[in-house]
């Protein structure tokens, strides 16, 4: 198992700070995909820490064909004795094999929850513990949503490519500083689904049009480019029709508007498995 321990990176201003990977001694041991994964994991940790003081914040990422990686925000391994470090990794391993995809437990006086997520090429588990008493239902729900959302991003990065979704046909009209986009989806069981939206940012127009066509009850929040090492990613943030936070990401290798469409579809899909965990 590869351990990636890191202190807070300054990304603690939420999604607005989801930008590049910090310089760190451990960078030399990570390939480009690992660094992308770490930057996203760190941003998720930052959001989790905004809610309340945490005494435990970790994410175990398990690719199907590679060694698992443990990302640890707190406690740091430097603060642990060898016995406590073993106990911590043992607890995370136990939770990763639990019957349910989410649950509560106590560790060293902390009120903790774990959230497992599943992708086509990887699995993951977030383990989060508060230092200030029991986590109430509202705080636990927010924590689960963040873990599900960023776990889903990790699995999207692990999967790579974009063949998990079928991009729509896009019609684009640009005038007077705005972009109008129509997104069309063929449906084998019914009429063509179409969404149209206008925005000053062409990526936003794409995201809103795709959302209108596929999830009319959803709400667009944000779309942005991410600097991920020497690659550029497109991140879409939205709320689904149930008000649940959804994130979608894709690496941009060509057309920015097509990338925005793929990222939006991934966010809408939520990559949900039969147990209800976000993939």
What does this structure look like?
Helix 1 (32-51) runs antiparallel to helix 3 (137-159) and helix 4 runs parallel beside helix 5. The longest helix has 23 residues, at 137-159. The strands form three sheets. The chain has a six-stranded mixed β-sheet with strand order 1-3-2-6-5-4, sandwiched between helices. A three-stranded antiparallel β-sheet has the order 7-8-9, covered by helices on one side. A three-stranded antiparallel β-sheet has the order 10-11-12. It has five helices and twelve strands. By secondary structure, the protein is an alpha+beta fold.
What are its keywords?
Beta-Lactamase; Double Stranded RNA Binding Domain; three-stranded antiparallel β-sheet; 33% strand; 2 domains; 279 residues; alpha+beta; six-stranded mixed β-sheet; 5 helices
Radius of gyration (Å): 19 Å
> What best-fitting shape do the alpha-carbon axes yield?
elongated
Q: Can you list the strand order of the major beta sheet?
A: 1-3-2-6-5-4
**Unreliable stretches:** 7-25, 271-279
**How much helicity do the residues have?**
25-40%
CATH class label of the largest domain: Alpha Beta
How large a portion of the residues is in β-strands, by DSSP E?
A: 25-35%
Please report the distance between the alpha carbons of the first and last residues: 22 Å
Compressed to H and E, one letter per element, the order equals EHEEHEEEHEEEHEEEH
Set down the secondary structure blueprint.
Blueprint: E1 2-5, H1 32-51, E2 54-63, E3 69-74, H2 82-96, E4 102-107, E5 110-118, E6 122-130, H3 137-159, E7 169-175, E8 178-185, E9 193-199, H4 202-214, E10 219-228, E11 231-239, E12 245-251, H5 256-269
Helix pairs in contact: 1-3, 4-5
């Amino acid at each position: 198992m590869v351990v990636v321990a890191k202190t807070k990176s300054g990304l603690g201003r939420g999604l607005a700070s989801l930008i590049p990977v910090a310089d760190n001694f451990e960078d030399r041991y990570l390939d480009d995909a690992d660094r992308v994964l770490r930057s996203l994991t760190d941003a998720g940790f930052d959001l989790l820490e905004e809610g309340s003081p945490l005494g435990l914040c970790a994410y175990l990422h398990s690719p199907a064909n590679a060694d698992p990686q443990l990302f640890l925000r707190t406690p740091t391994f430097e603060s642990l004795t060898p016995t406590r470090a073993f106990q911590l990794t043992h607890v995370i391993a136990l939770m990763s094999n639990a019957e349910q995809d989410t649950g509560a437990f106590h560790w060293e006086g902390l009120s903790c929850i774990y959230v497992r997520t599943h992708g086509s090429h990887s699995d993951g588990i977030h383990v989060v513990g508060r230092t200030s008493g029991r986590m109430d239902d509202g705080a636990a729900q927010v924590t689960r949503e963040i873990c599900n959302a960023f776990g889903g991003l990790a699995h999207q990065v692990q999967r790579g490519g974009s063949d998990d979704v079928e991009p729509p046909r896009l019609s684009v009209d640009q005038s007077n500083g705005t972009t109008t986009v129509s997104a069309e989806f063929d449906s084998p069981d019914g009429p063509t689904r179409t969404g149209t939206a206008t925005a000053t940012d062409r990526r936003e127009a794409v995201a809103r049009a795709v959302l209108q066509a596929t999830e009319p009850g959803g709400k667009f929040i944000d779309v942005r480019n991410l600097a991920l090492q020497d690659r550029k990613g497109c991140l879409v943030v939205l709320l689904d029709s149930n008000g649940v936070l959804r994130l979608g990401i894709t690496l941009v290798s060509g057309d920015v508007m097509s990338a925005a469409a793929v990222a939006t579809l991934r966010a809408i899909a939520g990559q949900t498995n039969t147990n209800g965990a976000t993939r």
